[in-house]
Amino acid sequence: MLDTLLKSLPVALAATLGAASLAQAEPKAGGTLTAFTSGYRTLNAAVQSGAATGAPASQIFAGLVTVGADYAIEPYLAESWEVSEDQLTVTFDLVDGATFHDGEPITGEDVKFSMEVVKANHPFGQNMFGHVTSIETPEADKVVLHLDQPVPGLLMSLQPLLMPVLPKHIYDDGQDMKTHPRNMENVIGSGPFMVEENDPTQRLTLVKYDDFFIEGRPYLDKIVYPLIKDPLTRVLMLEKGEIDYAPFAGVRPNDATRLEKADGVNVTTDGYGAIGYVHYLELNLREKPFSDHAVREALAHAIDTNFLSMVIFGGRTQPGTGPLHTGNPFYSADVPMYEPDMEKAAALLDEAGYPVGDDGARFSFVLDVPSWAPAAHVPMAEYIQAQLAKLNIAVELRKAPDFGTWVKRIASWDYNATMNGSFNYPDPTIGVHRHFDCENIKNVIWSNTQGYCNEDMDKLLDAAAVETDMDARKALYADIQKIAQEDLVFIYMPQDFSATVYSDRIGNAPASPFGALAPFTDVYLEE
Fold first, then answer.
1. I need a surface site. Which of 59, 423, 455, 465 has the fewest CB within 10 A?
2. How far apart, in whole angstroms, are the C-alpha atoms of residue 383 and residue 377?
3. Do 138 and 146 meet the contact criterion of CB atoms below 8 Å apart?
4. Under DSSP, is residue 309 helix (H, G, I), strand (E, B) or coil?
């Protein structure tokens, strides 16, 4: 799957595009699908990663390709592509007649502009497109990428979730792309659905774009995302049929068990193969006490991830052992492990110069908690607070009221520690490198916000990014995982439990490796 770029054969336009399906029946046009949102601050996935933005953005914007079953790269805005024999030139031919939602044609110049925006602004844009040295648009419907080295994960990065095609005629006006007003107001996209209503405090409503470039698609008339932050409220609405679709960590493990017994509701863990969501405790490594490795090691010995897996996830997840999810093709179990050992944790703190003070505490810190989603962050933080109290470490939990507040604090490095988590994506250059690359220490959420820099790690990352031999890449990523755990860049929590709950009335429910983050071109309603 990851060496798709190396197969230099043109790819013909598939007869059917969109997400793989969980149901097979004669599709019907029309109807409104109701999902939910727990909050978002932008609809432009070119400048923001994560599911909150990615789920609606993948409907609003198209990419050059989509990812189908078994990670197959499928045509989308690009009807075909060809890779040169030396793997340093990739030529894309765009579909005829594709237009933005304002009727303006989509051209190679828009694709070039979009890639440059992602490269400069996305949390891992440089990791995805850093080896693209130049982009040519010899014709309106042709784009030529020139690379300085082969990039195994390039095509995977060209889907709408990671490189949405933006209208250059709107965004190329000199304004900051991260705060551009058109990211949220009068949004003009290139995908199957247009923005009809955007009120982040209430709901987001998308409507079918009648002039979408795939004839007869999408089937749905509307997708509505009401703001629902409370997990129990989501469960009740799913049971009543008021929500049709709830993906990711929107439903807790015990709620999934409850919903499996509900009439008219389906629960599946399909559609997350490419995601690999990993929870972790992120520490600001710029200042003491967390710049001290012994302190990080003490915390690692104080946290029992097996216990958390059983209590929070009902045993439906595995403890995290490093930056790669156990389902990732490059995962390695050959990493240092920090078994629960409170006596050892206390001894490490004593030896590091953090004895219990006259006030009864070794030190104190504030732990930020994104409390709206994923739901597991709050109980994890409460457990950490209780465990560290046994070591005479005072932890204050600061629960962020909304996504924007938390993002601003973490992205500006104004924090001691935070509960966090991120997607692996199938190729580590897309989702993993961003957290460890010295050059990716940015004021951007889900980059290297913790401030980690290790030259040996950087050399391994650079080598793995361009290695085309699968076995050699696996060996490099095994070393990367080992160093990450030796350095304790993060303290990993149990892996996330991700499930999709969807109504019986949904046909072709998204089940490709990217699930809810893929275009809903083929999704329809039975009634």
1. 455
2. 10
3. no
4. helix
Structure tokens that stand for 254 in this block: 């015990």
**Whole-number Å distance between alpha carbons of 454 and 435:** 12
**Residue 281 near residue 490, CB atoms below 8 Å:** yes
CATH (residue range 277-495): 3.10.105.10
Predicted local distance difference test score (pLDDT) of residue 399: 94
Cβ proximity of 144 and 138 under 8 Å = yes
Residue extents of the structural domains in the chain: 277-495
CA nearest neighbour of 44 among 227, 195, 250, 219: 195
Is residue 427 within 8 A of residue 158, CB to CB? The reply is: no
CA atoms within 13 A on the CB side of 1: 17
Can you name the residues that pair with 132 across neighbouring β-strands?
147
For tokens 């690999």, what's the residue? 276
For residue 424, which of 160, 72, 153 has the smallest C-alpha distance? 153
Is the pLDDT assigned to residue 437 strictly greater than 80?
yes
Specify the higher pLDDT residue, 274 or 444.
444
**pLDDT tens track for 16-72:** 334 444 445 689 999 999 999 988 999 999 999 988 999 999 999 999 999 988 889
